[in-house]
Amino acid sequence: MPAVFEQQEYKKRVQATKQAMQKQGIDLLVISQPANMNYLIGYDGWSFYVHQVVLVSLDQDEPMWLGRGMDANGARLTTNLSEDNIREYADDYVQSLVKHPMHFVADVIKEKGWGSKKIGVEMDQFYFTHRNYVELEKSLPQATFKDANALVNWVRVVKSEAEITFLKRAGKIAERVMQTAVDTIDVGVRECDAAAAIAYAQYAGTDEFAGDYPSIVPLMMAGEAASTPHLTWTEKKYQKDEAVLLELAGVYRHYHSPIARTIFLGKNPPALMQETADVVMDGLAKTLDFVKPGVTAEQVEETWRKAIAHSKVVKESRLGYSIGVNYPPDWGEQTISLRPGDKTVIQEDMALHLIPGIWYKDVGFEVDATIRVTATGNESLFDYPIQLFLK
Amino acid sequence: MPAVFEQQEYKKRVQATKQAMQKQGIDLLVISQPANMNYLIGYDGWSFYVHQVVLVSLDQDEPMWLGRGMDANGARLTTNLSEDNIREYADDYVQSLVKHPMHFVADVIKEKGWGSKKIGVEMDQFYFTHRNYVELEKSLPQATFKDANALVNWVRVVKSEAEITFLKRAGKIAERVMQTAVDTIDVGVRECDAAAAIAYAQYAGTDEFAGDYPSIVPLMMAGEAASTPHLTWTEKKYQKDEAVLLELAGVYRHYHSPIARTIFLGKNPPALMQETADVVMDGLAKTLDFVKPGVTAEQVEETWRKAIAHSKVVKESRLGYSIGVNYPPDWGEQTISLRPGDKTVIQEDMALHLIPGIWYKDVGFEVDATIRVTATGNESLFDYPIQLFLK
Hints:
The structure is a homodimer.
Chain A: H1 7-23, E1 28-31, H2 34-41, E2 53-57, E3 64-68, H3 72-78, E4 86-89, H4 101-111, E5 118-121, H5 130-139, E6 144-147, H6 151-155, H7 161-184, H8 191-204, E7 219-222, E8 243-252, E9 255-264, H9 271-290, H10 297-307, E10 320-322, E11 351-354, E12 358-359, E13 364-365, E14 369-373, E15 378-380, E16 388-390
Parallel strand pairs in A: 1-5, 3-4, 5-6, 9-16
Antiparallel strand pairs in A: 1-2, 2-3, 7-8, 8-9, 10-11, 11-14, 12-13, 14-15
Helix pairs in contact in A: 4-5, 7-8, 9-10
């Protein structure tokens, strides 16, 4: 049970990270975002509810994993790190009022002779709390701290061939997940039973590939809840003529292929919903025609905005974002946002989630495209009908 | 679809929070931990992957919800807050390099005349990043900041009658979840298919009550992975004579009843596993006999340690912790830890998870007790056999 990718793949990732560090004048990187930890060394495990970090230093080949004692065997099982680069802290550091895991991290940094280096930390990532910063700064008075908030996230933005294989497996799972939702959701069915069937499909995956837990649980807004995007489920039964907005995902080893569709439980959706659906699906198709290497993120959004300008549909939030490997609470990569001002140039082997969700006061509509950018355009990670589903 | 508890319940919670604020010299509380937000106003939704807060001010009756525009309808649907106390920021604050949601929070704080108050923030909670602190401090130069890290968590520690009802429903779901695991896991079954069946049971709940997503996905370590506690599942098939360590939960509206058991896929478990199981189950029973109002957290752990002192079993990590309402990534409350040094006096209507998990190099064993403290002792939240399951 070694790390899931070839060792060469991790080496390349660490190399690219070190190049980014050099550009930004950073000697040592302290990484606490779980997806970045996984990306750099393969580390996996639901242990991110306690403090843990990966260290990347310019003067050492291999990164280091530092975490709670009981998780060190997890690091041995899921990474290829040598024993000296797996360091565990005692359990009395956990949620203590006296000790803090960052004291342990600082001790290792000093032991390695890195105590007066320029240290990059992820200042706006969940899992890097304010206290983490305070304790590190106090324990390393000779160090200079720099914000390396999305440094590794940006290294992740262009996917390797192996990652694209994983994303396509996630796409295959996404097809099954959405089909399960469309098959299960119906008048009289409890929301929670539909959620259960969806989760089953997410975890079981395909006959060949295990599914994985998504970074966001099934979002499935029905009835009045369809006016907002982030609610889950209750014991309520679906009603006739109710709309159900679904934002789901297929996941393979933490690589995500989100998939969003809308079901209307009746034959005659409200005129506003049908109009919105038509405008959005047409606008999305025109936008996808435009996405290819060389265009910018804001141009993609502009294409969308122009394509729907003839209608009453307004999308105030960003059109989409970059995806890849992730852990709760978000499957967005926190790099590219498809919105005005984002001048990132789209490149081959980026992966994007375009999610033109529209939530009015009384009705909403969601559909999406999850794509890999190819040499000349883009391809969907899954093969699933783009339509408003009537049942 | 109003908040799930009676309005009176929320009023009491806010009142108790304000008392704690007064004791600690805090005028205004900025809460970003999702469970604390839910506890104070009922707010629900998987929107915690962007910055959002609840404000509690000594000089205002009602708390305020501040979050992303698209989630404001979620706040309207899941809380009883008046419209003026729901404030939404524009989407270009999301993951921007220029704007930050804490600028918006600071603007509201200034508008309300709270800009020079003593402000409590949750300095070591995930979801309160270092950048949150930096931006708040910069935007509110007249304010004094104090650490209110677990202030609301400690208000949560004694449960109301309504909360105990929820915890018992979670316990009912936990019984089904573990039974599903015991029924499903067997030689030749893929780990991911067992995980899928478990998730189905978690989300579907009972015929009466919807299940909810747990704050930690099914942890199910098999074979060599049984040497560590926080791994999930793969496409691997269970093997004969393999141990499977399960740490699961039943959840009702974010209230958790964790449940942990161990299955051995054979008739003859290794001697070390059977011995460990016997010692741990006996020690746990003796510890439960001891837990009642008036004893301290460290005395509970001491009772456990003495009960297993005659054996070779050593448990280096804490024996357990307080539970209740929670959101990913942790179902622990971050208040009571059953370990040396924690002098918290156990009170009626606290809820505790005792999880004496033992992980050796080659073999592990897990079992647990999830209890509510009664007037004279304690009661289990679920009715499920305590044993090493042989299949």
